[in-house]
Write a structure and sequence with these properties.
The protein is of the alpha+beta class. Helices cover 40% and strands 21% of the residues. It has four helices and seven strands; from the N terminus they run αβββββαββαα. The strands form two sheets. It has a five-stranded antiparallel beta sheet. Strands 6-7 form a two-stranded parallel sheet. Residues 188-197 have low confidence and may be disordered.
Length: 197
């Protein structure tokens, strides 16, 4: 009996020390990870919005939610020329897909870049390929989007063959961006986009 109490106390002490070490490590690394993520996002902003000079968070926070994580004004020549959306898609095949998308104030998509994804290699992971981002060129955020083929039309974004759940997650996320764009610009896409939720 005495031995088992002694073992229990030792186990408790070991667990307490391990917990403290893990907490300390997490506190030390969390800011570094967060800063690396911000730098990755800022680099992506310049890739998806050519000519970008500076960014500023939008004043209207009503456009933010669990999926639209942040929205920044894209400033060129001292004027707001568009918006930069940081998005976490609804869950795809293996989790949410984090991406940034740029759009001019008239709704024209200027670019899209995947930040993080854990979709299946050879299928859903194709969302991170340049061809997928290229299929966003020519898309407009002025109406509800659908997905089909290689995309590239005002109301058509690309679909990924053999990855329905990934494609659907991206479609839902992009239609949330359509709705946010409508709120920010007073555009007509808001009521149409809400139908796809």
């Amino acid at each position: 009996m005495k031995k088992s109490v002694e073992y229990a106390v030792k186990l408790f002490v070991i667990c307490a020390i391990a917990t403290l070490v893990l907490a300390f490590t997490n506190n030390a690394t969390a800011p570094v990870i967060e800063e690396a993520q911000k730098q990755k996002e800022l680099k992506a902003f310049t890739e998806v919005f050519p000519g970008l000079e500076e960014t500023k968070p939008v004043a209207d926070k009503s456009v933010l939610n669990d999926n639209i994580v942040s929205v920044n004004e894209a400033i060129v020549g001292g004027k707001t020329e568009g918006y930069l959306y940081s998005v976490n898609s609804p869950v795809g095949y293996d989790g949410p897909i984090s991406f940034v998308v740029g759009a001019k104030t008239d709704g024209t998509v200027t670019g899209m870049k995947i930040i993080n994804q854990t979709e299946t290699t050879g299928f859903g992971a194709s969302v991170a390929k340049p061809e997928y981002a290229a299929g966003m060129q020519g898309v407009s955020l002025n109406q509800t989007l659908k997905m089909e083929g290689a995309g590239g039309k005002p109301d058509v974004m690309p679909a990924i063959s053999g990855a329905t759940r990934t494609s659907t997650a991206m479609l839902k996320a992009m239609n949330m961006v359509v709705e946010a764009q409508a709120k920010l610009t007073g555009g007509a896409g808001q009521s149409n986009a809400s139908e796809t939720k």
